Amino acid sequence: MAFASNPLSLSVTEPAFEAWLRDTGYLEILDDRAASADPSPTSSSPSPSSSSSVPDPPLRPRTSAPAAESSGLAARAFSSIRTFTSLFTLNPFAKLTPEDLSGGTPSWTLEFIGGAGSYSWPAGSAQSRMRVQENVRRYARNYALLSVIVFACTLYKMPVSLLGLIACLVLWEFGRFCGDKWQLEERSPGIRQAFIHIAQLATAVVLYMCNLQLAIACAVGVSYAVLIFHAFLRKLTPRRIPGANQHGRLMQRR
After folding, report:
1. Which residues span the membrane (predicted)?
2. Helix orientation angle between 212-233 and 140-157, rounded to the nearest 10 degrees
C-alpha cells in the first residue's frame, strides 16, 4: 500500500500507517467496500441532473441482449483471470514479522475457517494483495500448524521416508551418546569432528535413498497452495479479542 508524497501531510511511515489501519478496523472496511463494489461498467447509470442538462445523443443501433451479456461475461472472466494470475507475482510473507508468530493462535472455527459468507473472490489485484499479506500475518500460527500436519500426513503416506528420518535421528542420538560417554570433545576433538563428518555423509545418503526430499517437496507444495488460496479468498473480518464479550457484559451490568 503506497501513497504519493504530500508536503501538507504528516510524515507517517508506511508500517505505522498500516498498524493504525489494522488497529482501527479500516482494513476490514476497505476490503468490504472493494468486495461489494460492482466493477462492471454496465452497472453505472447517469444521475437525473446530468441527464436533464446534457442533451440526448443521437440514436444508435442497439446491440442485442445476448451479445451484451456475452461481452460482460468475457470482461468479468478476464478480470478474474488477471486477479488470479496476480497471485504468482506477490510475496505473501513480505509483511510477516516475528511478533506475528509469537502471538496467540486464532480460533480455528470462528476466525480461521469462518462461515460461508467469510469468502469471496477479490475485486482486483490490489485487494488480493492486501488480503493475502494481511491474512498471512493474522493466521501465521494456523498456517504453520497446518504445514506440520501436512508433513506428518506425507510421511504417513511414504513410510520409507519416515523410516529414513527416524534412522537419521537415531544415528545422531547414538553419536551424541558415544561422544558424551567417551568425552571426545575434551580428549580428542579431531576424532569427534571426523565422526561428525561421517554422520553427515551417512545422513545425506540415507535421506537420498529414502526419497525424503520428495516428501518435503510435496509437503511444502500442498502447504503453500492451502495458504495462498485460503488467504486469497478469506475476507478481512474483525479479529476477536479474547474476553471482549465478558468485558462488554460487565460494562452493561455497571
Report:
1. 139-156, 214-233
2. 140
- Which helix (H) or strand (E) is 76 found in, with range? helix 65-85
- Of how many residues is the chain composed? 254
In angstroms, the CA 131 to CA 51 distance is 39
Are 122 and 83 spatial neighbours (Cβ–Cβ below 8 Å)? yes
- CA-only gyration radius of the chain, Å: 28
Backbone angles phi, psi at 86, to 5 degrees: -65, -15
Closest CA to 150 of 100, 102, 217, 234: 217
CA distance 239 to 224: 23
Q: Which residues contact 126 (CB under 8 A, 6 or more apart)?
A: 34
pLDDT in tens, the chain (254 residues): 455 555 545 566 666 666 666 656 566 776 766 666 544 444 444 444 444 444 455 545 555 566 667 777 888 888 889 888 988 889 999 989 999 999 889 999 999 999 888 999 998 888 899 999 999 999 999 999 999 999 999 999 999 999 999 999 999 998 888 888 888 888 888 888 988 999 999 999 999 999 999 999 999 999 999 999 999 999 988 765 544 444 444 344 44
Cell numbers for 28: 476490514
- Give me 187's grid cell: 580428549
Answer whether 188's CB lies under 8 Å from 167's CB. no
Grid coordinates representing 105? 493462535
135 near 230, Cβ under 8 Å?
A: yes
